What we know:
Blueprint: E1 9-14, H1 28-38, E2 43-48, E3 51-53, H2 64-68, E4 73-76, E5 79-82, E6 85-87, H3 96-114, E7 119-122, H4 128-139, E8 143-147, H5 150-153, H6 159-171, E9 174-177, H7 180-188, E10 196-198, H8 213-219, E11 226-230, H9 239-246, E12 253-257, H10 263-272, E13 279-283, H11 290-296, E14 299-302, H12 311-318, E15 323-326, H13 331-334, E16 341-344, H14 348-360, H15 365-369, H16 377-392, H17 395-401
Parallel strand pairs: 1-2, 1-7, 2-5, 3-6, 7-8, 8-9, 9-10, 11-12, 11-14, 12-13, 14-15, 15-16
Antiparallel strand pairs: 4-5
Amino acid sequence: MAVAMARPINILTLSTLFPHAASPNFGIFVERQTAELANRPDANVTVINPVGIPPFPFRNLAPYRRLITLPRHEQWRGLNVYRPRFPLIPKFGARNPLHIARAVLPLVKKLHDRNPFDLIDAEFFFPDGPAAMRLSAALNIPFTIKARGADIHHWGSRPKCLAQILSAADKAAGLLAVSGALKQDMQAIGMNGDKITVHYTGLDQSKFKPVDRAAVKKQLGITGPLFICVGALIKRKNQHLVIEAMASFPDATLMLAGTGEEEQAYRAKARILGIEDRIRFLGNVPHDDLPKLVAAADISILPSKSEGLANAWVEALSCGTPIIISEAGGARELVQSETAGRIVQQDSAEIAQAIQEILANPPAADEVRKAVSGFSWKNNGDILEKIFTGILQPESEARILA
């Protein structure tokens, strides 16, 4: 039931996607969104970041050894973060929502008794959404769920997970999607579109901005065209297509910012093509170091199989760097002209053609940047606060805020 709020909203943010000492870039977009909300006088935020630990002997394998040592409660970059453990069976995720709910409920009840929560904010549809549904029932408070892409496209393709996703969507007080395209995908699998609000990512435009590209390239020891792919080195991101396209540009350099299970396969492909000396595997780049690299690139390329609306797309455009991306998620919500870049098929020849076109007629960085002029963490926070307030306040007050 909606209630009038005479005090700050007390929000429990539940997110399996959240940075920590072992992976400081993991889910950093959730951290930035949460920090923006927590910095507002009308909101108090407590973060619960469940950490999955498998049974012996798997718990002794990397990267789980590092997870075991994480503090269970800490102030993480100004945010109050709890990291309770839950039992994880690698590669089998259908029961994770139940395991998470059981593991965190005692902590949540203790915190709720001390300072009652008004709303649960689940930041990933699976497993966070169905877990939040169980916590919501236990505390008798509403919950919302945000969809980001893989949580719908990957987990929604598994029948046992889909049933839980749809049950949580039905019981949630509100649903969020990172793009209009993802909202359509959510409706296609059976969700009520009237409950879904498009909530675009935020952006720090003071960090992600154009630079003197030639000067930074010189600092990096690069001559000729420079391309960058930002994202985990996994099959879904399709970086192998970019490596193949590199064979058509003998004076170009490609930077891969990220790590993942495909790294060795990508290194082998580069060797086979004879271009390994022009592929730079950067590993996990600290997020604060990323703007300079992205702005130095002539083109940012990410031909993913699926996305919601990739932060890497938005950040590249803010740097004045045009993008080449596939027809995935909210691609056309960003690339609305050739100034912003190209949308291509998942094909190395098409990627090479798009690269050639952009290099032949490079757009001005300031013009590229206009494609994301409306993206900011303030706008992101304004919309999120409005959604939460509308759920908790009487309809008459919510209309005033609209």
